Amino acid sequence: MESIQPTPTFCEPLDDDGLAEPTFLDRLFDQGLLVRTGVDGLYGRSGAFESVVEALDRLIGRLGAADNAEVLRFPPGMSRPAFERSGYLKGFPNLAGTVHSFCGHEGEHAKLLACVEAGEDWTAGQKATDIVLTPAACYPLYPVAAARGPLPAEGRLFDLQSYCFRREPSLEPTRMQLFRMREYVRMGSPDQVLAFRESWLERGTQMIRDLELPLAIDAANDPFFGRAGRMLANNQRAQGLKFELNVPVNSVEKPTACLSFNYHQDHFGTTWDLVQADGDVAHTACVGFGLERITLALLRHHGLDLAAWPEGVRRVLWG
């Protein structure tokens, strides 16, 4: 695998008084690129920050344009029954987010308001709705694709983008609870989806190089929950089902996954009765781009003043 190119250490330096300099997150707030909301990992974004996200989204679209993927955009919520069937709760119950609403009568409403007035917990009367927060941009896609019937002989390719939610509050700016993911998803035979993944490994690597960022591509695993999850993670890594393109953002020692390349084998095909033209269970693969993470990597390495970024980087993003 490729190794990380030389890059400065990210230890926050000490000032003349021996005090730690502001962290990267502090500087993002001070510059107004991110906006505090009072919740770790939940931030507003400035126009400058969004201009980079939007430029990256357009760049990714240009990279995949020749493939003629079907474009679909889902909201950041999905059907709870579909979410339950997906199996997400088996592997990541700690990351899931549900949507609850008040479903009571007038008397219960009065109790709710009394709790708010008293500063007490008012959520006891909330009930789960039929919507959950989308954990990855591809999750709403599989039941939709399966409902169309067998795949054509050439399989199918989709272009997705969505806000996603994972409950992991953190002071690392790259670990947001609500973030945007751009994905391409390939459905078809094992050969078709593996060729797709290899193609995007090359494209994604070249994109990050063109943005003049240091990188490493490493075998990886999803953060499965619990003891059984550790076995799943070991199997995933041993079989080479997941690769990540990592860029140092918070530190060199623990670089940040900015792109992921995933081969699901027949997991989603079996789950959703998604079949190939010949009746065999379909295999799937996806490439995911963390739009906020790549933006933060650019800000970390090229500075917080977008106008001062290297000309080559600005040309790649904005022409």
From TrEMBL:
GO terms for molecular function: ligase activity. CDD domains: Gly_His_Pro_Ser_Thr_tRS_core. It comes from Methylobacterium radiodurans. The keyword Ligase applies. InterPro entries: aa-tRNA-synth_II/BPL/LPL. This is Amino acid--[acyl-carrier-protein] ligase. Keywords: Ligase.
